[in-house]
Structures
1.
Amino acid sequence: MGADGILCLDHPIGGYVRLLGDDPKEEISPEERDRSFLTQSVKKKIAIVVAGPLFNLLLALFIFVGVFMTGVPSLTSEVGEVQPSSAAGQAGMQPGDRIVEIEGKQIKQWEEIRETLQMNGGKELQFVVEREGQRVNLKVTPMLKETQDVLGDSHQLWLIGILPKGTHTIKQYDPLTAAMMGAKRTWEMISLNVTGIFQAHSGEDLV
């Protein structure tokens, strides 16, 4: 080929870069032999192999940071459904309630509800909800439930039995917060991929 090979497709799905000399059977001209992959030192080979995945991770990080700074849709704390026998149902929470406080902490996003429940475990929590323009105080004790993630793994979480209404707001983050959230999201993607690979090799079903 005479140089590293680059595959370009007529549709934007995948692609690869082929290294010069990565195939021992490949015929390489004498003037290009010093540039071939197999003739490089061990350190250079490691650097070449690592460079590709590392660039992909950095690219993912920059994309996530840019997305968080530009603004991402975020579920509001408005309740869409309350399961009758759940902790929230027993406490008197109703569809249409908007959760504004938990244990004195201001709540605006659905994710904040989830995080607060896990941080406090199973202790009784003081909720403040907004209902028809009025604030209502509720005492809710989360229940420990077993759930499954996207890989089919079981996890125990503290839940109160509510679902979001589905209303969204666009939330923008400052550069520092966006960088931290981008790093966290990139790490989550790495962990998810590594877990999937190990499960595939161990023969576990991915649901």
2.
Amino acid sequence: MLSRETPLELAHNRWSAGGAVIKETLHGCRNNDGALARYLHADLGYRTTAIDCSSAALKIAQAEQDANDGPVFQQLDIETDDSSVLPDAGYALVTCRLVFAFIKDKPAFVDRIRCLLPPGGTFWVVTPLAERLPEERKSIGITVQQVELLTAPWSSVESEALDSMCCYALRP
């Protein structure tokens, strides 16, 4: 399995509203060289778009992929770029792994993600919690106040603690 949080992600997100299998997913590829996007595409049959603002991260992810089949890898800064350039207008699942602490305008980011989710869609966030990290690493985690910014706008919030991290399944 890719990581400890992957089974939780799949358990939380196996079905979208109405019991239909999720077919469109949007992922970042930094931190995992596109492995989750390829897993969802190749092993589970999802149509997957992996985005990153880093061309280097995209090159690494694309180098690991069969050129004939696989997820779409696209350079995009989800904080500032126009999301209308994405291949799908909406995504049943959007993941954000180890990135939320570094987002500059967190409320605007959450609003942008909400716009990409149809009813029944899920925003899956995996992030370290600052309170569970050693002092020298607290900057890579989110604070209690940032957890509130992340979770407050959603009608459904499920979370699962994993040592110093937490996984959130957020639904409109």
